[in-house]
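pipeline stage [seq->struct] | target=FAD:protein FMN transferase | organism=Bacteroides thetaiotaomicron | residues=261
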Amino acid sequence: MHTRVDILLCSQKSEEELLSVAERIHEALSCLEKTANYYDPASELAVVNRTASVSPVVLSSQLYAMVDLCLEYHEKTSGCFDVTVHSENYNQDTIHSVCLSAEEQSIFYWQPGITINLSGFLKGYALETIRDILHSCSIENALINMGNSSVLALGNHPAGTGWKVNFGNQSETEKTGESQSILLYNECLTTSGNESEGRRHIISPQNGNFVEGLRQIAVVTKNGAVGEILSTALFAAGPEQRETLLASLRPLLVNHFLIGY
């Protein structure tokens, strides 16, 4: 993920107890990096990408759950969310060469050159991991901000109901001095897109090219992992397909915002 994480915990617990919670979060995120960091050659995912086309690889329960969810939402987003877009000779059928075995908890690539990249999903999954830790520690009011693009808001700010969160294009905000904001209560806000012309990083599954334009899509959802998937899929989709997805995915969306369109 390689991103800053801001943690704000509101509780009657002692400072020592809250620091212990923060340490648990740090350990969980470090573990997540070791499992699913595409860019770390020592991660479990990197080992899978190197070897799964040779023979089936048994996955940890965590990585299996992540890949399984991503394959499920590839179908639900009509292919607009595709974790295989970084594969060699990629096309829209590449992902169908990824074979998961529920019985063996294993994965196999039917052809060489396939790679799975979970970067467009990992921060949202991390928010849900953090939510579970906070729940186990009986912390009901908290704000977690990962890189200003993935936010989990639990309960209330000490001064009132929910959490007011700013979002939108940072360069445009600096230019106008204005930003959009929303009140979140037990919800996640995830944003996907291009903050500047030189920072393209989302590939369109339709053509295998980077999505151009100084635009972003923000979604509010109950689940951070799902939100990360949906914001990425909606940004990668074309205009007509985006409208179709918004209609079909409406039960999963609390709200959405098109920024720069």
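stage status: PASS
auto-comment: Residues 140-259 form a domain with the T-fold fold (CATH 3.10.520.10). The CA atoms of residues 72 and 81 lie 10 Å apart.
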